[in-house]
Write a structure and sequence with these properties.
The complex is a heterodimer. Chain A is built from 16 helices and eleven strands. Chain A is about 40% helix and about 10% strand. By secondary structure, chain A is of the alpha/beta class. In chain B, a hairpin with a 2-residue loop joins strand 1 and strand 2. Chain B is flat and about 55 Å long. The termini of chain B are far apart. Classes of the chains: A alpha/beta, B mainly alpha.
Chain lengths: ~500, ~100
């Protein structure tokens, strides 16, 4: 039996769409059928935009009939993390404080996809304001991992990862500030790409920590990641941090292999805190890359052990400033009955934000307050410089670096909610690339003893997406495993 | 060593209303988190310049060409309370 359309890769679907063997509406129907079958259990979406999706799919058909040449992302259903602004479609950031916010404009990544004929399925659940590593900090409900519904999908882009793993969407966009694309991709057995800082515009991405926020992709193949990045990347005058480089076709050169490439295995990949099932899969992956012709060696990032500490000062500090705008004046929730404006703001924020967001606002406000700034924020910024220097030194000897994406596979829902520090450790391997702005991809590389997926993280130099995609693609081809969650396998029987 | 934080003071700075229960929980949790974050102080970095942006861009200019912006109605559409084309808030100034 052939796979349902919703379980196929965008690269395959795009070819058939272009050749006229398939209609966009057929793919959409397949995705919506899957949503009907699994969404009640997975809960990936905060908002399904079914009616608009049918219109977008029909529009692709009309444009093709009129002779317009569309390819690539046209007609492929996509899900967007609910921190990305969509004109006329509620955008909540997973927060009660924005429960009714309808943006008057589109974020640039979606504007580009829409113009190219992409079909929006809906907005996905996430940790509130993208703060979290399990999806459980959503102000609405937790998302479940399609591989084991009693476990978390990872976070913060929980719903985007779960929707792609479950075949509800062919691909999705998320955001990565400390690992929020790569870690859930790893826990859900899909490909997660965080590009170089500034490669994808953040215009319309509702800010969490501006010096660390990246837009990234969730796909079921490496070539799909390359295709999606090609559609959303490139300079945007609306984002002052956007790099000057124009759009680029990342689908070229994916099959060039790894022969002769120098691959550094990051120290600590098999050390303390790394589950045995994860370590075993990563060892196999390294062996596989060696057999494919890569020169493999060990590499140290000595300051990475301080990266987590630096991140938990820098990110909350920026968040405390960015989230000051939610004050009940211009949009979102307002708590009624206050006698003056300060009381209105204070009670609105107290009622609208959840526990993790409050924790980080207080932490960031403290770290930036008089008398503590130099010891905490100032020192964290210096550590950031040292993390960047570590990467520069490592890339003198290696083309790419590999390590686990996450020290563990998916954990049980509720297991870490009362221990924020344990939750923060989920991002120990992903945070350094956000601090340094370098591109990194997580690609499924095996399963542990519980049958849960493990992700291999491949990190490259600034703007060297082509090389990490090439390594990931060679690895994926050689491994040759389809990562299909039991939930989906059952439906196909 | 957990770090001691004056939660009331910081919550006031952040304009964040917290219940007593939230305050006591935050005091404990943030003490532990800050003790872990304070590890950055172990790094000897006197001569190291701070980084605010990993890939900094400065002086990004464009032509000063006027383009359409949001209409007043669109800008006000999400506001909890509007009066005479303005955002309305509870009183700001103390009354005599």
């Amino acid at each position: 039996m052939t796979d349902p359309l919703c379980d196929r890769t965008a690269t395959e679907l795009a070819e058939e769409l272009r050749d006229g063997d398939l209609k966009a509406s057929e793919i959409l129907d397949s995705c919506l059928e899957r949503v009907d079958a699994v969404e009640e259990q997975v809960r990936a979406f905060l908002n399904l935009t079914t009616e608009a999706a049918h219109e977008l799919a029909d529009d692709v058909g009309r444009r093709r009939a009129d002779g317009e040449v569309l390819w690539g992302v046209a007609g492929i259903p996509i899900a967007l993390k609910d921190v990305l602004a969509t004109k006329g479609i509620t955008t909540t950031c997973g927060s009660r404080i924005l429960h009714n916010y309808v943006p008057p404009y589109d974020c640039t990544p979606w504007a580009r996809l829409k113009a190219a004929g992409s079909v929006l399925l809906g907005k996905t659940n996430c940790d509130e304001f993208a703060m979290g590593s399990s999806g459980e900090n959503s102000g609405f409900f937790p998302t479940h991992n399609p591989w084991d519904l009693s476990r978390v999908p990872g976070g913060s882009s929980a719903g985007s990862a779960a929707a792609v793993a479950a075949g509800e969407a062919v691909w999705a966009l998320g955001t990565d500030t400390g690992g929020s694309v790569r870690q859930p991709a790893s826990l859900c057995g899909v490909v997660g790409l965080k590009p170089t800082y500034g490669l994808v515009s953040r215009y319309g991405l509702i800010a969490f920590a501006s010096s660390l926020d990246h837009v990234g992709t969730f796909t079921r193949s490496v070539s799909d990641a390359a295709l999606l990045l090609s559609a959303i990347g490139g300079n945007d005058p609306m984002d002052a941090t956007s790099l000057p480089d124009g759009p680029r076709d990342y689908t070229r050169g994916l099959d060039e292999g790894v022969d002769g490439l120098r691959i550094g295995v990051v120290e600590g990949s098999f050390g303390e805190g790394v589950e045995e099932g994860v370590a075993a899969s990563i060892r196999d992956a390294v062996d596989r890359l060696r057999k494919l012709g890569a020169e493999v060696g060990d590499v140290a990032l000595p300051n990475a052990e301080y990266a987590l500490s630096a991140y938990y000062l820098i990110a909350p500090s920026e968040a405390s400033s960015n989230l000051a705008r939610y004050d009940g004046v211009r949009y979102g929730l307002r708590e009624e009955g206050a006698s003056d404006v300060v009381e209105m703001m204070t009670t609105t924020r107290g009622r609208g934000f959840g526990p993790e967001v409050k924790r980080r606002i207080i932490l960031g406000t403290y770290a930036l307050s008089a008398g503590y700034y130099e010891a905490y924020y100032g020192q964290a910024q210096k550590v950031r410089t040292l993390v960047i220097r570590d990467y520069e030194k490592a890339f003198e000897s290696f083309d790419v670096l590999v390590q686990p994406t996450s020290p563990t596979t998916a954990f049980e829902l509720g297991a870490r909610v009362d221990d924020p520090l344990a939750m923060y450790l989920s991002d120990i391997f992903t945070i350094p690339a956000d601090l340094a702005g370098v591109p990194a991809i997580s690609v499924p590389c095996g399963t542990d003893g519980n049958g849960l997926p493990v992700g291999l993280q491949i990190t490259g130099k600034v703007l060297d997406e082509p090389t990490i995609l090439r390594v990931a693609s060679a690895f994926e081809r050689d491994l040759g495993t389809a990562f299909v969650p039991p939930l989906v396998a059952q439906l196909r029987e | 060593m957990p770090v001691e934080i004056d939660i009331d003071h910081v919550a006031r700075l952040a304009r964040l209303d917290l219940t007593d229960e939230e305050k006591s929980r935050l005091r404990v949790q943030l003490g532990v988190i800050l003790a872990a974050a304070a590890r950055v102080q172990e790094v000897v970095a006197e001569d190291v310049p701070p980084t605010s942006y990993a890939i900094p861009r400065s002086n990004v200019y464009r032509e000063d060409t006027p383009t359409p912006s949001l209409s007043r109605d669109e800008a006000l559409a999400g506001a909890p309370e509007v009066e005479a084309d303005r955002f309305k808030v509870p009183r700001v100034v103390e009354m005599e």
